[in-house]
Fold:
Amino acid sequence: MQPADLSAIDIVTAIRQGDLTALQCTEAFLNRIEQLNGSINAFLNIDRDGAMATATAIDARRRAGQPLGPLAGLPVAVKDALCTADLPTTCASKMLALFQPPYDAHVVSRLRQADAVIVGKTNMDEFAMGGSNENSAFGPVHNPWDLSRAPGGSSGGSAACVAADMAPVAIGSDTGGSIRQPAGLCGITGLKPTYGRVSRRGLIAFASSLDQVGPMARSAADCALLLETIAGHDPGDSTSLAVDVPRYTELLEQPLTGVRIGRVPEHFAAGLDPEVAKGVEEAFAVFKAAGATVHDIQMPHAKYGVPTYYLVAPCEASSNLARYDGVHYGHRCAEQSQRTGTKTSGSELPLVEMYCRSRGEGFGPEVKRRIMLGTYALSSGYYDAYYAKALKVRRLIRQDYLDAFQKVDLIGGPVSATAAFTLGEKTGDPLAMYLVDLYTVCTNLAGVGGISFPCGFTKSGLPIGFQLQSPALAEPLLLRASDRFQRLTDWHRRRPSLPASATSLPVARAPH
Amino acid sequence: MTLSRQEVATVGKLARLALTETELDTMTRELSNIVGFVSLLEELDTTRVEPLAHPLDTQNVFREDVVGASLTTAEALQSAPRHDGQHFLVPAVLGESGAA
Amino acid sequence: MPQFISAAQSPFTTIVGLEVHVQLQTQTKLFCSCSTRFGAAPNTQVCPVCIGLPGSLPVMNRQAFLLAVKAALALDCTIAPFTKWDRKNYFYPDLPKGYQISQFDLPFSSNGTLEVVDPKGAFAPRRVGIVRVHLEEDAGKSLHDETAGTGDTRIDLNRAGTPLCEIVTQPDLRSPQEARAWLNELKLLLEYLSVSDCNMQEGSLRVDANVNLHIPQPDGRMAKTPIVEIKNMNSFRSVERALIYETKRQWGEWQETHAEMGKTPKQTRGWDDPAGVTRAQRHKEESSDYRYFPEPDLVPVTVSFEQLADLRASMGEPPVALRKSLEKRLSISAYDADVLVNQGRAFVDYFEELASILGVGKLASNWMQQDVMRTLKERGDTITSFPIRPAGLANLISRVTAGDFDTSRAREIFAEMLVGGRSAADVIATLGIAFVGDDELISVCREIIAANPKIVADIQGGKEQAAAGFIGHAKKKNPNINPSKVRAMCIELIRAIQ
Structure:
């Protein structure tokens, strides 16, 4: 039995009971990462030394009988959008290629306090802008189910590394679907918590009113375990909710009898791949079998979600990314003019040119596009027509959710219109790429919770994702429903055929 | 909905993004498409709708006025492209301070 | 500097509005827990938040908000029940986030007034409207190389994120002199409330002025010259000088060009203090398109009536009320009340204690305005560290009133008391000053009358002022003797002889 085959809950149990050491576990995953990363490119930075040192220290503390944190010895991969004081944090951008934060993100601190072992930083779309991971300045991530396909994005590295058993769990961030969509395309479980449930401090901002950090794992139960550690109030984030964190792992048992799940007929309109539609409908049948009831509901403004999102998010991004100007950190263009070539004590470039060139060189095309779009939509004369208009539609979208949750407890449906698409397929058409967020952006606009997990496979063997959305702070129900689904199905247990890890390690306990 | 090349160039200046001639052409075409797409919102009557800038209803989040830890100068400057050990260095700035 | 042309004879009216930035007296910055102490080594009071590092988030300083509301209440502003913050987007190296967190469409307060009265009547009382007061963060400091163009600009972010109150007035001021007086009144008010130390040298108070001229035309129309914003004024005196200069410059320009407001864009001019002129500043590129939008990293703030009532109750009397109250309670003149109140809260507290011990306002006021103020000025000191406390000074003054010694002798004692804060009694003892009793006074007077027949003759001849000649002789015999008593006693004794 290999650690890579165990659930996160089993790993922490095995380590606590002494059936597995943190070092054995960490080393097994590191070996697999090193074995596979060349073909998957899920990690931008692998911290073998740091992870081994942490694992060794945890084992020593266990032997000494000292108390251990709830995630003691659990390897965790962290999206490179979260600041780590001991590892560079690039946000997959040339702009931050050399950036070393002097502080840990709040979520990273909580992971360390819980004695998790951070094995590395995962690849992503640059500044979390994209739905395929092809916008990384350090090359795309390859989907473990088919290396010629995209893993989705922007948390593509986190999704792919879990799917490929390179880490049992990972941290992602979701601004318009960036956890749920890659989870769906990679056949894993990913949760976008309610806005404010998890602190954003240290998460490099894309769109502040939409961004949320969340867990990605092989199962809803493992997501529950991770969420227990990362959720909770942070006085350093004004938008962090001062609400107690439930024991998610202990709230999974209750059956789904009487739980009302909404189904939006418009989700099944033209554009949804028939194989995906079939998988999603079958998932509804599973929920019915589990005692839930399914009700057709209306989300009249859902079709305005993508255009609303593509105004709100770029507007906030244009401002959030203004700080990357080559002054205090980040990429700065060469300062000596080519004309003279002589050495001087200072810079020769005028300031404004330094700004424009540094930003022009440091940002990739999609980031530039969104900065341009947001700058345009906020500029004088356009603000009311675009930004203010989008905020009004945002209220209508949120109202749709408030109305829907009067009638149902959860809303189910597809997470993406298709299974994983081929790398390069959509890169020439920004609008086509934006539409991959069709089913996910409204969750963020409304600030509610959402989860996605596999509900079937296409004939060609690609995972199909199912999404559940819940009212604010109803994560216990989201996780309970997903966990119930996973007790009744085995889609989440399927693994892509990739080379097995090199060595087997003795483990007394079998996975459940 | 189309944006002119000149408009796009102006936005580029405002956003402090150097765009090559080719980038300017591509950007003009792509932004026009995207702006055309988001203009779908125009069909909704929102005259009586209040804007919603943020999903939270929370108010009055404060911290107390107590001094906490600062970074060391070395930490503050550790990722600076240019510094003199005490300050961040930038090309000479002419004109008034940016302080508003 | 030419004489200011008074409104009565001037062919134009000067219109001035001010924009004042005041640093709030907090321990920490507006959105992070870095210290706001002035004068620290560069980039030592910085953290991820005020450097604008990726991922950092702001959290509002409660005290900063309360101080800002206090200032607005004192300026009679309406306090908004709901307020939020916005991002003002522009690029500048001392603005690390690429935006300033400020307030745009929903400032926490608006629509106030502050009146300024000149006790000598140099101008009529002027009530100045306040458009708005809002709370925002300061930028860092750019240190420019003197040989600009070749060297680097150095950036120090210690000041970045310091809480600032921005106070914007209506264009209600009508002369440079009024503007200066009004600024003094504003500064005094903010100091009284402990909202700000208003130290202009340390940048805790900064002023920009908008000025233009209204010129009545023969056809009855009012011509208005283009509004000029003046920056870089480092003292209230500079503000007055710059406005005087700018008024003259605009009048000259008007006579030449007849250019009116609206035909040219608003101009910004910098005050060059040593040269005594304003100079046109380079126009900031796209300076007006700040792309304000709601700050998504902060949540709105609401203020209740109860909170406002509590704040009001904690504020104490503002200068304008205090002047009237001193005038009435302690029977001093409006002028004296003005001088005393203008010295600041601590000075008035001292004065009130002194007056209450003495039971006479006027006497206390005289000593405060003459001896105490002069000494503070000479020593460059403030009343809080003044070595003589009110009880000690009251003791000294009451002995002068009792006639134990004269004022000049009292000044000598006062000077000695300043050294190490000694009591009057202690100083009197060390200087060997002893109380001169009536018996000794009579005996000394008899001796000097006997020894100075010439003076006696003069007095007997009706020249009583000749009695002054006795004083030197008396002092030789006993330096503690009270001169006025000597004069009176000698005259009495000579008359008795007659």
In short: The interface with chain C takes residues 13-14, 16, 53-54, 56, 58-73, 76-77, 82, 84, 86-100 of chain B (CB under 8 Å). The CA atoms of residues 73 and 86 of chain B lie 7 Å apart.
